[in-house]
Amino acid sequence: MTIRVPFNNLRLQWDEVAAAAQADINEVFTKSAFSGGPFVERFEKEIAAWLGTPHAIACNSGTSALHLAMLAARIGPGDEVLVPAHTFIATIWGVLYVGATLVLCDVEEATGNIDLLDAERRITPRTRAIVPVHLYGQPADLGRARVLAATHGLKIIEDNAQAVCARYDGRQLGTIGLVGCFSFYPGKNLGAAGEAGLVVTADNALADRMRRLRNHGQSERYVHTEVGYNYRMDGIQAVILQHKLRRMNDWTEQRRRLASQYAAGLGDLPLRLPAVVHQDHVWHLYVVRTPRRDALRVHLEKAGIETGLHYPVPIHRQPCLQNLRLDLNAYPNADAWASEGLSLPLFMGMSQAQMDHVLRSVRSFFQA
Hints:
Elements: H1 11-31, H2 38-51, E1 55-59, H3 62-72, E2 80-84, H4 90-97, E3 101-105, H5 116-121, E4 127-130, H6 142-152, E5 155-159, E6 167-168, E7 171-172, E8 179-183, E9 197-201, H7 204-214, E10 218-220, E11 223-224, H8 235-245, H9 248-266, E12 286-289, H10 293-302, H11 332-340, E13 341-344, H12 352-367
Helix pairs in contact: 1-8, 2-8, 3-4, 3-7, 9-12
């Protein structure tokens, strides 16, 4: 019988938390605490302590988190923001939503994270912020980013949508820049049962402003001190996230063990394996690279193995940005990642039989 290997299996996470979470979910309905409220506040307090940050502000998506961060940092028209050209599209929305100027940078050939040498070449007197994306679960080079920010007076806004639980210099990602942005989209390492996100900061004034902005700009009920947004987190999402958070350390170690098996089982093939360059990796995605990516994907599909493409159309080639008249040849590493990258299955609860089947199938492709 052919072994089926899904790209992810979120049911396995739910099975681990269902018994403990169900009573809290029932209480959400009993108290009708559906939008914001005590369950969200409880989650905010617990994840702030876990991350080691004074302020954690829950919101309804990682995209909203990035928008709130730009607003709180007072980035706006005339300001330029440095962003990697290889990332999920949500990274740029916050920049565009506030009317700032998007400045794309190429990425590191080894990691896919923002190339800070390229970023530095693109700095002008109008540059106000940089958005390091901790891509696929690995930290961007925050050491160099902090030097760049200090030298040029830039604000660091971390896009930590994919690297919850990873550390840099002993600190949790998301807590190192001025603001850190998290996505809890269901497929993330820490995923909700729908849409959810988080912004964190050590700045009291920024935290207060982001709390107002996510709740219609209210300083008190029905008093709106500025234009705000409906970016509140649902109570049910907070309950699910709080129970999953308590398993994050164990689940992350599972992901690391699976990544180690891939490295050991595929290391002798003509296949570019992901490199751990910047201190830590929590393996949100295990992305291999080969010019034969599409053929390998078809081969694995025939073997009952689902794979993913993250992200086959880089930012500078997106149709919605045609009006920016970008130099499409200015981001060669981003283009290489987009055309060659293939995400192999890696998820909490992946069985040894499933791992062995993927390893055999990948090897058979290159040995044919």
